[in-house]
Amino acid sequence: MTSKFQHIALIGKHQSAHAAPSIPSSQEVLERVAQLLSNQGREIYVEHDTANNGGLKGHPILNIQEIGLRCDLAIVVGGDGTMLGFGRQLAPFGVPLIGINQGRLGFITDIALNSIEQALTPMLKGEFTEDTRTLLHAQVWRQGKNVFDTLAMNDVVLNRGATSGMVEIKVEVDGHFVATQRADGLIIATPTGSTAYALSAGGPLLYPSLPGLLMVPIAPHTFSNRPIVLPESVEIVMELVAGRDASVNFDMQSLASLVIADKVVVKRSDLQVKFLHPKGWSYFDTLRKKLHWNEGHS
Questions:
Q1: How far is 13 from 253, CA to CA, in rounded Å?
Q2: Annotated active-site residue in 49, 80, 110, 131
Q3: Would you call 80 a catalytic residue per the annotation?
Q4: Where do runs of H (alpha helix) occur along the chain?
Q5: Which residues of the chain have pLDDT under 50?
Q6: Which of these CATH numbers, 2.60.40.770, 2.60.200.30, 3.40.50.2300, 2.40.50.40, describes 135-270?
Q7: What is the pTM of this model?
């Protein structure tokens, strides 16, 4: 099976002015990938913003919707943040993504720069491990009106203001009152997001395919206020009871300011994101490398 994917979109992180000089630019990596695809006779397309920001030249340019309708694979060069953003955008179309990491190994961008050709060649022939991830659907309601509506792959985070004290958050799960929490904030995370902000706030790791959601308080006032794992079928409502300048972040990439009595409603989306990994990929290998387990051991 030599033509598993024929129409392939290339997407690159917009180059940072602070990127280390030892790290190849997005354009350089994209050119390597394009050469590999071209040698195999694949149809190559470049995402609109990637092309406009000094990315690959000489190939048809498509926006996200066009990629969703015309491509059967997207290869993303960047870091986990880049994959999160494009994963959310391509989820409605079911286009699978392969992630090539420009810097340090990512949790979801797991192909290193020194193994691009070695990893991609068999994957393009259909030899890969498929990995489907849950998305969150989040809404902000104010006085009965939906004022913000978006998706998140990692987490939805209600945060206190930068210069204010704790927030008070009334939490309900499927209409049942849980508690009014006093804390610096509250994280609702997917299993994918359990290795992001939730981890630094003391939450547990959830295996990616586990059908659960994670609720993690940030610096809670009461020590007994602990992280809890919930079924992914529930609807979680966070109501801001007290606290100035509070906001809610979605994958740390979009933000909505909150006022008292605003409600943030979070539930599992019907959409999912599909990642492809090299054959033999293991989540535990990623954890070991990213979290530096076994260091000091042979």
A1: 14
A2: 80
A3: yes
A4: 26-39, 48-52, 64-70, 80-90, 116-124, 197-200, 283-290
A5: 1-2, 17-18
A6: 2.60.200.30
A7: 0.92
